[in-house]
Design goal:
alpha+beta, 3-stranded antiparallel β-sheet, 4 helices
């Protein structure tokens, strides 16, 4: 195995950490429960493990970025998450920052001829 392969897993994990937050927030304008969000993200090309997503959702709720509500009408109660008003503002700011970062990174990559 090359030296690059020894480092890539950890570096990819670091890179994905922030993108999972933005990805999750982007899908929470409408209420979703945890597993439906995992599925939605996967369908859109963002792999996230439930063990990563659930703590993230709880943390974002605690920070006031998300609101939640239990639905006990189903056989299995489900906790639905949705962006709070603050969360919508946070996501909008993150989205703008993300776009700026992508533009900067694309510019840097073009400079290298890649």
């Amino acid at each position: 195995m090359s030296d690059a392969h020894e480092h890539i897993d950890k570096l990819m994990q670091e890179l994905r950490r922030g993108t999972i937050t933005i990805g999750a927030l982007s899908q929470l304008y409408e209420p979703q429960y945890g597993y439906s969000l995992v599925t939605t993200l996967k369908e859109k090309g963002v792999q996230v493990e439930p063990g990563t997503l659930y703590p993230l959702l709880r943390r974002l709720e605690k920070q006031g970025v998300l609101e939640s509500k239990w639905d006990t009408n189903e056989t299995r109660p489900r906790k639905y998450y949705v962006l709070s008003q603050t969360g919508k503002e946070v996501f909008d700011l993150l989205r703008k920052e993300w776009q700026s970062i992508v533009e900067s990174m694309n510019h840097l990559m073009r400079e290298r001829g890649e």
